[in-house]
Amino acid sequence: MSTSYSVHSVGSYMQAMGSMVEAAATFHLNEQDIIPPDLRHSEDKQKKSEAKSNAPIKLAVVSNDRNEWDDIIDGFADISFTKLDALISNLEITLSTEDNATDTDVYDSIFSEVEKVAQEKGTMSAQELMNSIMNILCLNDNESEQQSLLFDMLGFDHFDLIGKLLQEKSLIVEQSSTKYSKSKKSEEPALAKLEKQVKYPHVFQTYAAGRTISFTGQKYSLPVGTTRQTYNTHEEIIIPYAERKFKKINEKFVKIADLDFFCQGTFKNYDTLNRMQSLVYPVAYNTNENMLVCAPTGAGKTDVALLTILHTIQQFALETEEQIDIDYDEFKIIYVAPLKALAAEIVEKFQQKLKWIGIQVRELTGDMQLTKAEIMETQVIVTTPEKWDVVTRKAGGDNELVSKVKLLIIDEVHLLHEDRGSVIETLVARTLRQVETSQSMIRILGLSATLPNYIDVADFLGVNRQIGMFYFDQYFRPCPLQQQLLGCRGKAGSKQARENIDKVSYEKLIEMMTHGHQVMVFVNSRKDTAKSSRTFISMAEKENEISYFECDNSDLLKRFSREMTNSRNKDMKELFLKGFGIHHAGMSRSDRNLTEKMFLNGAIRVLCCTATLAWGVNLPAAAVIVKGTQIYDSKKGGFTDMGISDVIQIFGRAGRPQFEKYGIGILCTSADRLDHYVSLLTQQHAIESKLASKIVDNLNAEISLGTVTNVDEGIEWLGYTYLNIRMKQTPFHYGLDWQQIKNDPLLFDVRKKMIVDAARKLHTLQMIVFDEVSMHFIPKDLGRIASDFYLLNESVEIFNQMLSPNATEADVLAMISMSTEFDSIKFREEEATELAKLLDTSVQCQIAGDVNSAQGKTNILLQAYISKVFINDSALASDSNYVAQNSVRIVRALFLVGVNRRWGKFAKVMLDICKSIEKRIWSFDHPLVQFDLPGPILNQIKQKNPSMQTLLDMDPSELGDLVHNRKFGSKLFKTLSLFPKIHIDAEAFPITENVVRISAKLTPDFTWDFRLHGNAQFFWVFVEESDKSQVLHFEKFILNKKKLTHEHEMDFLIPLSDPLPPQVVIKVISDSWIGSETAYAMSFQHLIRPHNQTLQTKLLNLKPLPTAALKNPLIESIYNFKYFNPMQTMVFHTLYHSNESCFVGSPTGSGKTVVAELAIWHAFSSFPGSKIVYIAPMKALVRERVTDWRKRITPVTGDKVVELTGDSIPDPKDVRDATIVITTPEKFDGISRNWQTRKFVQNVSLVIMDEIHLLASDRGPILEMIVSRMNYMAAQTGNPVRLLGMSTAVSNAYDMAGWLGCKNNGLYNFPSSVRPVPLKMYIDGFPDNLAFCPLMKTMNKPAFLAIKQHSPVKPTLIFVASRRQTRLTALDLIHLCGSEDSPRRFLHIDDEEELQYYLSQVSDETLRLALQFGIGLHHAGLVEKDREISHQLFQNGKIQILVATSTLAWGVNLPAHLVVIKGTQFFDAKIEAYRDMDLTDILQMMGRAGRPAYDTSGTAIVYCKENKKMFYKHFLNVGFPVESSLHKVLDDHLGAEISSGSISSKQEAVEFLKWTFLFRRAHHNPTYYGIEGDLSQSGVNTYLSELIDKTLQNLIESQCVIMRGDAEIESTPFLTISSYYYISHKTIRQLLKRIHDNAKFEDVLKWLSMAVEYNELPVRHGEEIMNVEMSSKSRYPFEQIFSDEQEALPAWDPHVKTFLLLQAYFSRVDLPIADYHQDTVSVLDQALRILQAYIDVASELGYLRTALQMIKAIQCLKQGYWFEDDPVTALPGMTLKRHPFVKSEQDNAAGKKESKHILTLNDIGKMGGAKLKHLATHKFSKSFDQEFEKKFIDTCQRLPVLHEFSLTLLPEHSLLKLRAKHYNKKHGREFSVYCDKFPKLQKELWFVIGSLGDELIMIKRVQPKQGGILESELIIPEDLALNEVASMKFILINDALDLSYDLTINQEL
């Protein structure tokens, strides 16, 4: 048999060498002249070069036959060294003979021609051109490709040269190699040494694949011992197994017993690590180095991953003797596996190994989604590359998850060269950039099969080659592998090829069977498993070889035969009897498990399976056979070659170390693919990057994420990719040449071109905005959506052309079918019949275009999938699943595109289709199909097709009748209650003529079932005009079980068209439930547009007025400027020379303070001795104004300034003496309520109200009442009160001015341009669909870039919504600084010692870190000192950036050049959701931009959601109209006026309302206030009258008012209490419902917590969990106290939080978070006032015990202890202890006296200094700290202990006169008492209580006077007889300390 060979085949070359070796044996050489050669290298090189040079010669090898080679060998018979020397001396002589081609130097002649070409072109040198040509000849085996490349390079003019190059290719390559090596040796001997291959310490590579051609580095050869045989049916290459190598002397296996606790627990079933793991262990477990581990399948790479995981866990573990304490929340480990099946296997393995230390391992893939809570509690997440890409590329994704990743493990890194490789590249690049920018430690571990260019991959992964790069060759396989590759003849896919593959596979199978091996045969499809088994059985029967397959163990057969009876799989039962088994993903889990068990036990000899078995299940066999390599790929829509990773994985299953010496892997493929698999399996091809083809999509993802914002960052991003590494190594592969590499070694220009080209494409597709001037990228919604939903840019291009707002379902399905994602779906003729059948049976929407096309097929398959039709053809079924899987993603994306384009109809269609695909139900099917109902019931419902509303209105019996099944009626009724439905109620409030605010209330009305509804349900809220499909507003509404019973409020502004639309429709559509849709139509027929008569005062071109115009040198000296600014000049005359009330509207920072001062000077001159009241909305503003005026005005004019707020209670004398009172609205409202009895209120001549536009806020009604009261008071007393209102510009200024009583010249409403420093304003929109935290995060980088652009060196203020955001923003800015050349660019402190001094003073960790980068923090959660340091450093220019909450804008005048308002939303606890900030807050923040003394202009940037952009653009310039909110809270304000006597009838109440702003706006904007119908004067009066009736009714319910007849109003004592203590009548109402005469301490605590004043206490997200924890540790758990059905409150209720905070305060425990400290202060702030009111209510009812219990509660509040704690131990320096004699709260409430030997405060207060010192040092020495001794003595000597009591009865005056005196001469400032724990200073106060039995008769509060004397008179009630008075008990109790005295009438103690 004679066979032809080709030298291009590796096997041919090997066999050809045999003859050469024989010939060489006959050489006669002179030994003296021989230099001993390196046999391994030089002989090999010589032989191989000869083989190459003779390449064109055809070989024929037959044993003992003579052929052409024999003649050639004869030519070498007389070879000698003499002849060789002669040849060398004549080397330069060229012989031109055709017979001997080797004598001609073809290379030189070619080179001379190339020199001419190079001269002609002039672009590169001859050598460079020759090098490029050589690369083409060496790199490509394909001649046509080579020809094409050569024509591209040389041009068609050099056709002859190209022909010669191709003809003499092998000779040129050979000679160039020789020349290259010679020139290297002769010319560069030193360099030759340097070029030796670097030896890396962890590369264990025995066999390098042959010699290397100089230019390319490619290797040609196969392992030693490889044979290649040719047969009729196939060609066979057998690569022998690698013999085990002996270990090195110093190599030891790592024993598990020698390892630490973690490793021993995890590897408890191991004795040692294997050889590979032992070598890797030191780096994997003891360092944080990035690693690449290349090792054969089965070498134990998974355990290497486990070692790195344990090392990461160890870093977050605290190991003690008893236990391990792991901080589970601080780290995440991500394991990226290529397949879902492999992910599942890894999860199972890791769960078992790590569960002992409590580590949670979960799978996150397309099949296994995780909730946020599950992600939070999982430490190891196993995912696929695509899934992790989706998670990390979403700006609104799991940023917290990504930021906690400490280890990223990428399995099968060699997938880089497959289509999915680009995903791995982007993941690694993103991670490496994150590490660099955030300066965080994320370790990367790459696991892979053996790779040829592992060094490149290591460089890409950021691995240190000397430490973390591990390469293990085939010798490290646990069981060596023999590889047999069979190339079967016949065209791929043809009948001949299939028959040959079957035959060859069978032959190999029988061969294995004869050796007694078990075999796994891997086939290409599920169907083929049984088919191949039957083929093998028939062949065996034909050859009488069936006995080889049968199981010889009869026991096993019997056992499994029994188990087999439970299986329903006929194929499995039939094949089992013949010794065959099948396994694929389509089988049931039990059948698969049984098959695995049978194969493991040897009951079946042959297992036919699909490739999923190799990945998902670890089931080894002696031999594996891959039967055919053509597999169907639905993604490509056809048959493709099996991937090398699949082959490696399958071969990894061959060999069981305990049974066989080696495993056998057999690959049967077609002849044309044989060399392809040989080269892959022997690593002949380097793996290349696939990123270049996907760069457009990946760049879009990075731009959308915000990591790439300009071209430079894009270039930097590409620098981290594998593409960048490979382009330098093999430029030709990527379309580059060596010249580019030479000129641009870092490929900067190449990368720039790639980025710019990709960006232009994205810009054209409207996915980004690419500014080619600045080279910046701005992401757009379309780009973000494409990134989030993984849309290809080609698909976006199609959609851009085809999208239409009026598209129908059919149009949409046609468009989806044309998507690029489905380009791979091909129409095949053999499928036409089934597709036609599907078209008839399952298609509901018309198919556009040709049915017999790829698009038509996609459309049909998608509709068939929705219709749940069974598809017979497995390839079609696979295609159908692929189409459906991708369609959901595409439709979701298109839905969001439609929503963002405001296309209502289109969005609805897209949402319906999306739900149809997800649920596999058409949107026009009946919604009940979604429930699991019996078929007959569903058929009945489908036939009658009643609407859901009809069904919901029916009762169970009616439903039973409907479905003809009465019993089922109740079940159907219950099912219907589970159907999600939302009720809508809405109101419209016109704001301006063109804008209306809609307030919608959504009320869920269904029963929650976790199985159906999960943790949350999503709904879309759309607002549309009824006659158009344009969406006016959209919002996503998330409903969870917690909020199911709550009403959800939504407020949104929508534009009004002209003319008005007939209706506006609000729709609420479920995101997942078909048919769940509610619509609410709002008619606009009766809508009255508001009348906002406005005026904008133009700034006149006046000459600036000098300060001399004041004509008062004293006042002039206050001002450090010479001229007033233009605005002040305009208002000067009105304010300084008249007494008119004024309204001045001008922007923040325009100089309104001076305007107020002008009015003050006028008041002082016109009304000497009168008082001025300045009202500011916030305590911080009050403090700022007090500080400023005390500093500037008081020293010059001598006018006293007094602060009157909740924090500051001045002495009444100070208030009397002060001329300027600065206060808050609430405080002045409280004081002025009783103006009739308060002289100083009547003495007010000027009231200045700053920020009066806050009238629209919740506190606005208070301002209304103050103005109304002042006007009313002025009318009553006849003394004029001037009102000055100051604000930003408003759009209804006339109403404001009219209400304030401004006359001719009193109205000034300046536009926002009137500023001393002009302001540039930018408003940037961000995606609407992001949640709050991700939205804030996406704003950080734009803010950073804005600082660099607008304020690179000047100060910048960044305002954020919460304290937490200040911290997160600062940390993100620090990370961004880290990527700059100068990370500390914002720090302007040169002296390191100075910086260290500031840092040492700071207590907050984040602030300490931020200050080092020039960033400060400012919020209420910081301690005062930290705030002050931030403030001072920023003010002095030491730090450039200050991140603050909005409170800073009001409280501190701290201007900056640039202000960034990062987000316009904040969390409102009242609605438990995020809502928009008031415009006033935003204007105030913007007002901080621009520093008058330093800047010529300021810049303000507002970041908001995209849908709010136009709103801010409009109203920030024009001003927002101010509306009243008095009508919402009229009860308390009207009650106060009734209580003071200002109102005593309904008519007076109506008259009083006429003074309010509400009265004016009710006429001008009636619809806003709900006035419909009659809009005349009388109609509005009727509305106001009804409003007063409703208010009075509320007050009557609270027992605060009594009606006398129809009109007379009389107040009760309870109303007086409510008004006096400034608490709501509703608080009084709830107390009166609950109060009784025997209250316990817990009752008082509960009543206090239930006060309406605590409704606003914020309960932040996640605090409910902390509340439950606090409750479990509290004395009174809220679950018990609030257990009544009517009073049962959830953990997230603010009253529950108040209750728990008070208990924590009494117990003096540490609070879980800093916010709780601030909340406790807020609670205590109100608590005393409320309890004082409660005492008065209890006294009014005569409840003595309850009043005493409440006084005890006040003592506990002021001291911060429980009722049973010993008050003595609360003194300074002492440890709080329980009182030995107070066992219950009744003991103390009853005033139980202590035993004589117990020390009391009264005893201590009477001791002298010496006794106290003795007491401190001796009695309390154990618990006493010496440094407190002085404080202790001082406090004890100031205790308000009393003596010299007298209680005298004066019958003639019906009075009791009380007198007592302080025992100690010392007392605190203003009689303050020791209340160390209470946040505010407390003054001494005593209660005098007189009781008769258990009834409280009289109570009075007494305060000491000068000299420490207590004097008071108690009026005896008229109905009390004198003898009863004499028998009364009197007690004097201190409200802060446990001091009480029993008093006796006419008796001195």
From TrEMBL:
The protein's matches in InterPro entries, at most eight in alphabetical order, are given as: AAA+_ATPase, Brr2_helicase_PWI, C2_domain_sf, DEAD/DEAH_box_helicase_dom, Hel308_SKI2-like, Helicase_ATP-bd, Helicase_C-like, P-loop_NTPase
Is-annotated flag, keyword Hydrolase? yes
Domain spans labelled Helicase ATP-binding: 282-469, 1133-1308
Which keywords annotate this record? Answer: ATP-binding, Helicase, Hydrolase, Nucleotide-binding, Repeat
Q: Which domain of life is it from?
A: Eukaryota
- Helicase C-terminal domain: residues covered: 515-715, 1346-1551
Q: Which GO terms describe its biological process?
A: mRNA processing
Question: Any stretches that span the bilayer, and where are they?
Answer: none
> Per its UniProt record, what SUPFAM superfamilies does this chain match?
P-loop containing nucleoside triphosphate hydrolases, Sec63 N-terminal domain-like, Winged helix' DNA-binding domain
Q: Say if the entry is tagged with keyword Chloroplast.
A: no
Q: Which GO terms describe its molecular function?
A: ATP binding; helicase activity; hydrolase activity; nucleic acid binding
Instruction: Spell out the family assignment given in the record's similarity comment.
Output: Belongs to the helicase family. SKI2 subfamily.
Query: What is the recorded name of this protein?
Result: Antiviral helicase SLH1
What organism does the record attribute this protein to?
Answer: Hanseniaspora osmophila
What does the organism's lineage look like at the top?
A: Eukaryota, Fungi, Dikarya, Ascomycota, Saccharomycotina
